[in-house]
From TrEMBL:
<keyword id="KW-0378">Hydrolase</keyword>
<feature type="signal peptide">
    <location>
        <begin position="1"/>
        <end position="29"/>
    </location>
</feature>
<comment type="similarity">
    <text>Belongs to the peptidase M14 family.</text>
</comment>
<keyword id="KW-0862">Zinc</keyword>
<dbReference type="Pfam" id="PF13290">
    <property type="entry name" value="CHB_HEX_C_1"/>
</dbReference>
<feature type="active site" description="Proton donor/acceptor">
    <location>
        <position position="668"/>
    </location>
</feature>
<feature type="domain" description="Peptidase M14">
    <location>
        <begin position="378"/>
        <end position="714"/>
    </location>
</feature>
<dbReference type="Pfam" id="PF00246">
    <property type="entry name" value="Peptidase_M14"/>
</dbReference>
<dbReference type="InterPro" id="IPR059177">
    <property type="entry name" value="GH29D-like_dom"/>
</dbReference>
<keyword id="KW-0482">Metalloprotease</keyword>
<keyword id="KW-0645">Protease</keyword>
<dbReference type="InterPro" id="IPR000834">
    <property type="entry name" value="Peptidase_M14"/>
</dbReference>
<protein>
    <recommendedName>
        <fullName>Peptidase M14 domain-containing protein</fullName>
    </recommendedName>
</protein>
<keyword id="KW-0732">Signal</keyword>
């Protein structure tokens, strides 16, 4: 592969190894928890060590319970026949709790894997059974059969569905066979795996290696149905990426970058290229990389008190000390003394001279008597605070815990306080007349590759504008809006404090979860904070627990970061495409993104034409990813996110598509890579080593290949904006006279939505819409048993209407299509 490297002067981080780094005791802490050191911190305030474990859940119901309980599950979840497998970021205590909930921990060699060997299929597993050819009431349908190659190995992926799949007893089995090319017999029988989600049958599927591309497959059901299907190419014969041009400049990013570096570079790009770039500042400031200073004093029992400052730590809270003092004497009242930033609680005594102040009483006294230094004091978690408070050996220092530096993190103080997020806007004609594309990275703080991938794409646009024809076409015919880090507070916390941070830093927790030992569990999952299909409306995949990593927030759009996205798309109505870039898992998806678990009721599915446009765009985007180093995002990982991944209530894609008509994609970069040396697929991670094996998991390689895909998304948008050609459609088979009932369907020359009537009326936008047979399937088939006239028109993804027909106006020259199927019995 030809490569021209042009590096931009960026402050790059050293290579960081691993998905999760083990937490350490804060500097200056008293590791014994005895409280004997001056201004000591309690051992309770030390960060707990976390690690990544592979897990297996029984299904979506268990997934909901686990995430609602606050457990941190990685994006790399995948459906397997007996449930869901994935990874969890947990402490030792949390791992025990997961086990108690029925979650199984998987060893290195455990878990589901597709079999490379033919197993004999249904004949071997169910015995001989007669099968019948399909009629119009099909019991078996091939959803898709895709052939692809990666790293020199061929693969076949097949999905098939039976109308009797929901049947539980006996469970319907399906068998897959393939030929070895045109004219060869079917063979290599394999049993397909049945997938069920939230109690609803999805489909049967299989993925396996093949050395020869088959022409056809045959699928047989244990209930008697059989059908054949043609094999299609998935991501084969893709056009070369822009990077194949020896004059094309790319490979700008030297390492991971924290938000300050990302924003500084965005502003410098706007300064360097004023003719095609500028900065738009989002109006809602984040809550800030800041915390109230805190301490937990007195252990975890009924005598413990949690104390929080009124001022932010960096604005004086970190200077506060609290001391519980024992005085000689009897019948002494509880009191509070304040000298500068030193708060002394004079503990009360009873008539016998014994200490008598409870934790609840001390907390009340601190809030009322600290002269405004202490904003919040309360018993520890769910305690009633009935225990008698003991004196401290020394003053206890309050701290915001933001003064720690993780090994490998860059030098320099992180800016405290609310942050203003800049948007890098690139386009020659920034007047709202060209289609806009929004690239939103790092909603989730620990996902570092999406930020470098997005910046790499921005660098390619500005550096190649004057020298590369296709880049010039993109910049001249689109407007691109880059949000390089939509969660700067959380991202800084991930870089400097806790590598596994996912959410922002806003603490919405009540007293029971507000002590500093919980500080790595606070924040809102920004991609659960939107308005369509939200957890507040009963959809699955978001949590009401403030310590859950999928916490949806106290209300829809409660967070400034999510408010900003809505502000942006409402101000710039030309934004017609959006990519929310995440990691890791390798999925590329769209709507529906959420469902109500009881009955698996999804948010509205896109019309068949939009769905086809999503698939077409995905193939283009993913072909360019593959062109870099043959990384293949497999078809099972493409489609509606609730179909290929899980339900994520209140995600941004759902809101932007259903509210504003934006083609909104979600992308989990860093997917599995086939390793020919081992014959296995190797998964990614949130923070992979930057310069790893270029053929396996590597932050640098992921940045480059997925930047290829983002560049292709720009070309999709530019083509969409220039599309002025009407779609064409037809009824297959066409108008004519038939002796027997006939099956007919619509076909279009490009992704388009069809509106039709069969009752003699004129078709309008209120007419029935041609739908898919089932999700992930092509259009429905009409079984015509009596003479019927179809009237219809089609609209493509760019809004062009077939024959310039206007469905809103009645005209004698109506240009809708018509075809009559005459049945003569």
């Amino acid at each position: 592969m030809r490569r021209r490297r042009l590096r931009t002067a960026l402050v790059a981080l050293p290579a960081l190894v691993g998905t999760v780094l083990m937490a350490t005791t804060p500097a200056g802490a008293d590791p014994t928890g005895s409280g004997t050191a001056a201004s000591a911190r309690s051992q309770l305030e030390d960060r707990e060590s976390v690690r990544l474990v592979r897990i297996q859940l029984t299904g979506a119901d268990m997934l909901d319970k686990v995430t609602a309980a606050g457990f941190d599950l990685e994006h790399g979840l995948r459906r397997v026949p007996n449930g869901i497998e994935g990874e969890a970021v947990v402490t030792a205590e949390q791992l025990a709790d997961l086990t108690a909930m029925g979650v199984r921990t998987l060893g290195d060699d455990e878990g589901f894997a597709w079999s490379d060997q033919a197993d004999g299929g249904l004949q071997a597993t169910l015995g001989a059974r007669s099968v019948q050819p399909l009629n119009h009431e099909q019991t078996v349908r091939v959803v898709r059969a895709d052939w692809f190659t990666t790293k020199g190995q061929g693969f076949l992926y097949v999905e098939a569905r039976t109308t009797e799949g929901q049947q539980a007893e006996p469970v319907v089995g399906m068998q897959l066979e393939n030929d070895s090319g045109r004219g060869t017999p079917f063979g290599f029988a394999r049993t397909m795996s049945r997938f069920v989600d939230s109690g609803q049958y999805m489909f049967h599927r299989n993925l396996f290696k093949l050395d020869v591309r088959p022409k056809q497959i045959r699928v047989t059901s244990s209930t008697g149905g059989v059908t054949t299907g043609e094999v299609s190419d998935w991501l084969e014969d893709a056009p070369p990426p822009l990077t194949d041009n020896p004059r094309y400049k790319w490979d700008f990013i030297d390492g991971y970058m924290h938000p300050q570096q990302l924003y500084a570079r965005a502003k410098e790009i706007a300064r360097q290229y004023p003719g095609i770039a500028e900065i738009v500042y989002l109006p809602n400031k984040t809550n800030g990389y800041q915390r109230k200073a805190q301490a937990t004093i007195g252990g975890t029992g009924q005598e413990a008190v949690v104390v929080s400052s009124a001022a932010w730590g960096h604005e004086g809270g970190n200077d506060i000390t609290v001391e519980f003092v024992d005085r000689p004497g009897a019948n002494l009242p509880l009191g509070v003394e304040v000298t500068g930033k030193a708060v002394r609680v004079l503990l009360g005594k009873d008539a016998s001279g014994a200490l008598a102040s409870t934790a609840a009483q001390v907390a009340t006294a601190l809030e009322s008597g600290s002269q405004g230094l202490i904003d919040r004091a309360h018993p520890y978690r769910t305690n009633a605070g009935t225990g008698i408070v003991a004196p401290t050996a020394a003053p206890v220092a309050l701290t915001d815990f933001l003064d720690q530096k993780r090994v490998g993190a860059p030098e320099g103080e992180v800016p405290r306080g609310p942050a203003t997020i800049p948007v890098l806007r690139i386009g020659k004609h920034r007047d709202g007349k060209k289609p806009g594309v929004l690239i939103q990275a790092q909603d989730h703080a620990r996902e570092w590759v999406p930020a470098t991938t997005s910046l790499e794409a921005a660098e390619r646009l500005v550096h190649n504008y004057r020298s590369d024809r296709e880049t010039k076409d993109i910049v001249d015919n689109t407007e691109v809006f880059f949000i390089l880090s939509n969660n700067p507070d959380g991202a800084n916390y991930s870089f400097y404090n806790f590598a596994s941070q996912r959410r922002n830093m806003t603490n919405h927790c009540p007293d029971e979860n507000a002590d500093p030992a919980r500080r790595n569990s606070w924040g809102v999952d920004l991609n659960r904070n939107y308005r369509v299909g939200s957890g507040h409306d009963g959809y699955s995949g978001a949590s009401t627990s403030c310590v859950s990593d999928t916490f949806q927030g106290p209300a829809e759009l409660s967070e400034p970061e999510s408010k900003n996205i809505i502000w942006l798309v409402e101000k710039y109505r030309n934004i017609k495409f959006m990519m929310s870039v995440h990691s890791n898992g390798g999925q590329l998806f769209w709507q529906p993104g959420a469902y109500i678990a009881d009955g698996r009721i999804t948010t509205p599915r896109p019309p068949l034409g939009d769905e086809a446009f999503y698939w077409q765009s995905a193939a283009r985007i993913l072909s360019q990813v593959k062109a870099h180093r043959e990384t293949v995002v497999t078809p099972e990982n493409v489609g509606g996110s609730s179909d290929v991944l899980y339900s994520s209530a209140g995600n941004v894609r759902e809101d932007l598509y259903h509210t504003y008509g934006i083609y909104a994609f979600g992308w989990e970069v860093g997917g599995s890579i086939y390793n020919p040396a081992t014959g296995n697929w190797q998964g990614g991670s949130f923070q992979p080593v930057w310069e790893g094996d270029p053929n396996l998991v590597s932050g640098h390689a992921e940045t480059m290949e997925y930047a290829n895909g983002i560049m292709e998304m720009f070309r999709v948008a530019a083509d969409w904006g220039k599309d002025k050609k009407d779609p064409t459609s037809k009824l297959v088979p066409g108008a004519g006279t038939y002796r027997d009932p006939v099956d007919v369907r619509f076909e279009t020359n490009e992704p388009a939505t069809i509106y039709y009537t069969t009752d003699g009326s004129r078709p309008t936008l209120e007419s029935p819409r041609y739908e898919a047979t089932e999700f992930r399937e092509p259009g429905e088939v009409f079984h015509v048993t009596e003479t019927t006239t179809f009237r219809w028109f089609s609209i493509d993804a760019a809004g062009n209407i077939e024959n310039n027909y206007d469905p809103t106006k009645r005209d004698r020259r109506d240009k809708y299509r018509t075809a009559t199927i005459t049945i003569r019995k």
